[in-house]
Amino acid sequence: MTQGESRQTQDLVVPRCYCSSDVVRDAGLKDIGWSTNDLENGVYCVRGDFDGNGVTDYAFPGKGFGWEHRIDAKIVFFKKDGILRTASIEKVGSLHVWEGRLKEVPENRDCLIQREPPPPPNFLAGGGATIYCFDGKRFITQHGAGD
What we know:
Oligomer: single chain
Number of helices: 2
Helix content: under 10%
Shape: globular
Radius of gyration: 15 Å
Order of helices and strands: EEHHEEEEEEEEE
Largest sheet: 7 strands, antiparallel
């Protein structure tokens, strides 16, 4: 389903991952701006086990995502034989897997992080972050975390 590689820096795993397959086309990604052609060529995705069931799940930021362009993301949860369910996170920029933990979430689950850009003029200084962890029913959000 995916091609790419990952590199790890501190608590952040930065994937170089593009997803394309029939399963991806069935996940409703057109709702977040991806066209049929985009899906055939591969779209940016983030891999992790977000629900802790031992099967890789995928997070898809909407087409055109970035610090200046916030758009909804779709998380596709998988079971061994296909899609289990989907969930959305509203108005995100870039998402990555976060290796940290929130106490409200079981340890066997990966979380997502969205790093915030620092205010100008010093874009090299650290910005804030928002953490998204799925607790089995919904995403728990913590702002200002991950620094």
